[in-house]
Amino acid sequence: MKMNCCVDYDESLIAKDSYIEMKCIRCGHEEKMPSFIYGEEADYLLDIGDDEPPYFQCSNHHKDSLYRKEIQ
Asked: Among 11, 32, 34, 38, which residue has the fewest nearby CB atoms (within 10 Å)?
């Protein structure tokens, strides 16, 4: 599976079950994100006092509208 994102990481180091289902709330595009990326962003947000769930840029139309699928 090829991911469409700009983060450089070694996919061989990621366990197959450590992906999070993400979905764009604008266009409905779905993709899997490595859980460590999601977790690092969630931890950062908590560190700065923001308790909102993390969201990311949709690789389909480059808008900040990609959320964890279960949270929508």
From this structure: 11
The pTM (predicted TM-score) of the whole model is 0.70
Residue 55 near residue 40 (C-beta atoms within 8 A): no
**First-to-final CA distance of the chain:** 24
Residue given tokens 């931890």 in the structure block: 43
Residue 12 lies in a domain: no
Query: Which residue segment(s) compose the domain that 39 sits in?
Result: 18-68
Total count of domains within the chain: 1
CA distance 16 to 59: 21
Whether the predicted pLDDT of 1 surpasses 70: no
